[in-house]
Amino acid sequence: MRKKVSIIGAGNVGASAAERIVQRRLADVVLVDIVEGLPQGKALDLNEAGPVDGYDCRLTGSNGYEATAGSDIVVITSGLPRKPGMSRDDLLQKNFEIVRSVTEQVARQSPKAILIVVSNPLDAMAHTALKVSGFPRERVLGMAGVLDSARMRFFIAEALGVSVEDTHAFVLGGHGDSMVPLPRYSTVAGIPITELLPRDQVEAIVQRTRDGGIEVVNLLKSGSAYYAPASSIVRMVQAILLDEHRILPCAACLQGEYGYLGLFLGVPVQLGSGGLEKVIEIRLAEDEKAALDRSAAAVRELVAKLAL
Known about the structure:
The radius of gyration is 19 Å and the shape is globular. The longest helix is centred in the last third of the chain and has 19 residues, at 286-304. Helix 1 (12-23) crosses helix 8. The chain folds into two domains: 4-142, Rossmann fold (3-Layer(aba) Sandwich); 145-304, L-2-Hydroxyisocaproate Dehydrogenase, Chain A, domain 2. The chain has helices at 12-23, 38-53, 92-109, 122-133, 145-160, 199-210, 212-220, 227-241, 286-304; strands at 4-8, 28-32, 59-62, 73-76, 114-117, 140-142, 167-168, 171-172, 180-181, 187-188, 191-192, 246-255, 261-272, 275-279. By secondary structure, it is of the alpha/beta class.
């Protein structure tokens, strides 16, 4: 029997993730959305692409949650998208209500599922899902670091004219303006970018990484990024379903790691069939830890505003 992944929210991010999951033959997919006909239409369209692309994974569209029952993974993308001039923090209260309701439904239908939260502001919404579901921290993760690191990897490759496959990037902290890209741990074929690029160029890459999401929003003018977020979701889904024990940057609820307790922050983690297997701790320089403290404070401030 195939694994089952439910994606709550059939917009651009959710539908693109569903497409990649079935194309990689990872699982059957259930798309859920409140808009009547939207998840059903997208599921049918992707099913009809199966004979062309050569996959037998099945997609189901639904406006309710019954079809999600028994999911191995539930991806929560529901929520308002960010618009020009809107920060992730502006989304807090509205998306809190949405994610709280969604989590109640999916936890009831799939009590053994692993939750991957994508809704913004990411760290606060992951915290919401953890508290509402009552799941252990191993089974509630936020998709942030894979995306932020991918953006930084592309900017590094672009600056040096090298393959993205040779680049590695390291981003810690909250998924927002306070994220902490770490040039010292970001490399090309194992060489730190601080050895390959002048300081001003490194600083420009760091800032562009922080602004990666809003840069796309400003260009599109009527929407937000979805190709890269969808690919980042699928990278996490694959690591879990195939029990890869991959080390990926994700938002995880820290229990003393890096000196924080009960707070979701982007950190390197090991992912396998049970979700979070371990948090990888690295040594931080004084300025890096100070930046992470500021990021943690920003996340803590958001969480304090939630009615949990």
